[in-house]
């Protein structure tokens, strides 16, 4: 709601735009889609309460993710970002919904589509963009790139398909061992869901009752192969067999949040692991080297964008329930764009790490040691 006030300054009449929030709805209840259940008596509620503050926060975070990925796309095409680069646009409701259902003291590990989670786990846009361009100010000091980013309680993007799942079970084992009532969220894609190591991990996690939420982000395609062509059973939420599971609308941030809350409660109460399948969609190809339209049509992508875009869905809910004004959301968009532009500027001007840094941080707390350099005659120092 905008109220224009006319103020007289030094004889000149200036129209100042003043905003009052008193007329906004502080919170509203929304109907959400029913989850499909496996070995569970009860699913998440069919209604979710959203406060105005939460809505604005989710909106800002999802917009930041979206804009950051679009900027990464641009920098990649300019050859400023090189190597592997897997973008997350379209899947923002998954990351934001999961984080809203757990605590920052809980742990999270994912595959290589990791930029969004690096942001929700405490990384800054500036650090993420600088890591993508391989600069010193990057979150892994420019040595990890797109697939290898880490923060506290976030064990990275992992480049090997499915390899993060057993690692996540190890983190969950540590949570149980230390008795801090923490859990580990362990993410993988539909392409990794057929990996043998995932089933071995299910078995161990179930036997040891580990506080682990296994989450399959099913974006319908593993690289260029549709789920129907890759999996004899596309009911990924049932794949844990003896592990309870639920299939969730991964395009609705509230749906994901409520399902994650239920899963977290399951883990914290000592019942062992639980499996979630988030049905989502990526707008870009598998990676930047994949145009993304050779195995699916532009119309298909456009239809998802127009009917179930996670950001548009949240925006429509807030506007139609008078929880925010169009101007206010536009203001957030402008701020986000500026943040992304500033980060891109930093990521293209910050220096690359010097060669002397190449072998640093290999070990956590060892005394400095000599490491063979790029040929047998050069020596580099490794400092923890």
UniProtKB/TrEMBL annotation:
Domain named Dehydrogenase E1 component: residues: 60-354
UniProt cofactor(s): thiamine diphosphate; Mg(2+)
Subcellular location: Mitochondrion matrix
Matches recorded under CDD domains: TPP_E1_PDC_ADC_BCADC
Domain of life: Eukaryota
EC annotation from Swiss-Prot or TrEMBL: 1.2.4.1
Role this protein plays: The pyruvate dehydrogenase complex catalyzes the overall conversion of pyruvate to acetyl-CoA and CO(2), and thereby links the glycolytic pathway to the tricarboxylic cycle.
Protein name: Pyruvate dehydrogenase E1 component subunit alpha
Protein source organism: Sinocyclocheilus anshuiensis
Gene name per UniProt: LOC107672749
């Amino acid at each position: 709601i905008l109220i224009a006030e006319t103020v007289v300054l030094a004889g000149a009449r200036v129209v100042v735009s003043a905003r009052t929030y008193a007329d906004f709805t502080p919170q509203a209840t929304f109907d959400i889609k029913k989850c499909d259940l496996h070995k569970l008596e009860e699913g998440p509620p069919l209604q979710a309460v959203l406060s105005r503050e939460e809505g604005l926060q989710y909106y800002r975070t999802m917009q930041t993710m979206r804009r950051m990925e679009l900027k990464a796309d641009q920098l990649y095409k300019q050859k400023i970002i090189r190597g592997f680069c897997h973008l997350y646009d379209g899947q923002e409701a998954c990351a934001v919904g999961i984080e809203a259902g757990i605590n920052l003291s809980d742990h999270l590990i994912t595959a290589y589509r990791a930029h969004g989670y690096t942001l929700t786990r405490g990384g800054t846009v500036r650090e993420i963009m600088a890591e993508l361009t391989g600069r010193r100010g990057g979150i892994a000091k420019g040595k990890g790139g797109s697939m290898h980013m880490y923060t506290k309680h976030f064990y990275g993007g992992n480049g090997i398909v499915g390899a993060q799942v057993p690692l996540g079970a190890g983190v969950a084992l540590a949570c149980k061992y230390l008795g801090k009532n923490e859990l580990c969220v362990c993410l993988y894609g539909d392409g990794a869901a057929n990996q043998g190591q995932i089933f071995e991990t299910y078995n161990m996690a179930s036997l040891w009752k580990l506080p682990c939420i296994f989450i399959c982000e099913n974006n319908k395609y593993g690289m260029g192969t549709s789920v129907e062509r890759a999996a004899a059973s596309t009911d990924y939420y049932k794949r844990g067999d003896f592990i309870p599971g639920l299939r969730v609308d991964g395009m609705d941030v509230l749906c994901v949040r409520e399902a994650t809350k239920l899963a977290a409660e399951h883990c914290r109460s000592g019942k062992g692991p639980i499996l979630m399948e988030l049905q989502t969609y990526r707008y870009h190809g598998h990676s930047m080297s994949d145009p993304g339209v050779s195995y699916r049509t532009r119309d298909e992508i456009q239809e998802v964008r127009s009917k179930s875009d996670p950001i548009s869905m949240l925006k429509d809910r807030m506007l139609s329930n008078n929880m925010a004004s169009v101007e206010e959301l536009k203001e957030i968009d402008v701020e986000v764009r500026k943040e992304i532009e500033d980060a891109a500027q930093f990521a293209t001007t910050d220096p690359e790490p010097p060669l002397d840094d190449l072998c640093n941080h290999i070990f956590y707390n060892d005394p400095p040691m000599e490491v063979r350099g790029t040929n047998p005659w050069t020596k580099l120092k490794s400092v923890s």
